[in-house]
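Query structure, 436 tokens:
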């Protein structure tokens, strides 16, 4: 029986999950593949800490080069994370003629073009299903089952930490800081949660999705990123009153030769399927011109779910080799020569509905002043909540607008914030009511 040897770089949580798949599901993989997968070498700087799985001492090494230069290893799994030394190791594996599987979304978002170009020149496969959505097979769905479609838009809940925090804030009325602290204690958030809660992790994943769906190269610097740290229980309560939930959304759209690529807190109607994605779960909603809307949902992170996606890629590469060659499917879904560089629409030109919250003195004429300024900028008011009078203290005034450009909203809010009756900087959240 044909045998494929695999080398693993990184023996952390996900690496331990990969080893568990090898140990628990070797038989089912062999039955599905018609070949044997063997874990030949595992490299990590720390090979003594107990990860909850037993590995023969002869398989473990602290020298990554023993994986990268071993002529018997066919596939290298990179689970180190970050930019370096992951980038150098991946390029070395490719140089040695080895296929690569990675879960490293940050590496792909920043250095993907370099890595994929090197792989194409060497004639090897690079696969990265686990980089977006953990165990959800969203990338293979785009590249394979849905590849006859032109995609119009992507909406994704792609970070379990943020979704867990917003779910707790919604269900319990708790504030951001207290939920974050609890999430860290439970292991749902990192000690330094900045990449997660400020939207950077989600932006890395959106960069990959935009490239796959729209056939365009996009730089991370061109994605507008806003996190959830400024969301308050007050915003969540008002969202409920209007019939919305707040989610951190990754949004990609293609229209009129431009793409939108943005990550930010977004209000979505409570009766939309994405609104029901709670806790640490992820989901991606795609809209194709023929298939229409499709939503994929599941565990977006974690040892077992991510290891499942990693090993699915290893098996896909092995199937390609059994069939006589690799590179059956373009890594980014489009042939490299068909990839283009579409312009990214500036945020100031984005058109959306908006939730606006003002903190102003509770006195006659305040609402008229605010609505008057909005009217002069052509911003229509769809609905409003104004709490009862409370002896002239500062109170929230909440307005839901009709569609407007972000530039107009920002200009109007800048003028409103100068009013002597406004006590705090105004706050807005974008609304997505059309996901088709």
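Result returned for the query:
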């Amino acid at each position: 029986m044909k045998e494929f040897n695999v080398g693993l770089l990184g023996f952390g949580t996900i690496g331990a999950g990969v080893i568990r798949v090898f140990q628990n599901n070797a038989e089912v993989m062999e039955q599905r593949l018609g070949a044997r997968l063997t874990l030949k070498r595992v490299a990590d700087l720390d090979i003594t800490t107990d990860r909850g799985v037993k590995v023969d001492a002869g398989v473990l090494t602290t020298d990554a080069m023993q994986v990268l230069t071993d002529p018997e290893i066919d596939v290298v799994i990179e689970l180190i994370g970050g930019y370096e030394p992951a980038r150098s190791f991946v390029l070395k594996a490719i140089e040695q003629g080895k296929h690569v599987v990675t879960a490293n979304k940050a590496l792909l978002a920043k250095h993907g073009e370099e890595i994929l170009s090197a792989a194409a020149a060497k004639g090897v496969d690079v696969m990265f299903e686990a980089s977006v959505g953990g165990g959800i097979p969203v990338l293979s769905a785009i590249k394979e089952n849905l590849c006859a479609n032109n995609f119009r838009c992507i909406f994704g809940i792609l970070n379990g930490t943020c979704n867990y925090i917003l779910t707790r804030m919604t269900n319990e009325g708790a504030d951001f800081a207290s939920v974050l602290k609890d999430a860290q204690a439970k292991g749902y958030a990192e000690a330094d949660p900045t990449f997660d809660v400020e939207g950077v992790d989600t932006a890395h994943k959106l960069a990959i999705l935009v490239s796959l769906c729209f056939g365009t190269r996009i730089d991370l610097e061109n994605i507008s990123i806003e996190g959830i740290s400024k969301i308050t229980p007050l915003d969540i309560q008002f969202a409920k009153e209007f019939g919305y939930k707040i989610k951190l959304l990754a949004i990609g759209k293609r229209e009129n030769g431009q793409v939108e690529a943005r990550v930010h807190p977004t209000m979505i109607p409570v009766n939309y399927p994405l609104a029901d994605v709670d806790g640490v779960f992820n989901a991606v909603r795609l809209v194709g011109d023929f298939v229409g809307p499709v939503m994929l949902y599941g565990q977006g992170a974690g040892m077992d779910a991510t290891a499942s996606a990693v090993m699915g890629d290893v098996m896909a590469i092995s199937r390609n080799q059994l069939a006589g060659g690799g590179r059956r499917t373009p890594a980014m879904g489009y042939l490299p020569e068909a990839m283009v560089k579409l312009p990214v629409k500036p945020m100031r030109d984005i058109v959306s509905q908006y939730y606006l919250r003002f903190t102003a003195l509770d006195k006659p004429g305040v609402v008229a002043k605010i609505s008057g300024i909005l009217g002069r900028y052509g911003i229509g008011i769809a609905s409003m909540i104004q709490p009862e009078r409370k002896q002239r203290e500062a109170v929230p005034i909440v307005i839901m607008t009709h569609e407007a450009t972000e530039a107009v909203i920002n200009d109007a809010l800048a003028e409103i914030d100068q009013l002597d009756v406004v006590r705090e900087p105004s706050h807005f959240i974008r609304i997505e009511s059309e996901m088709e």
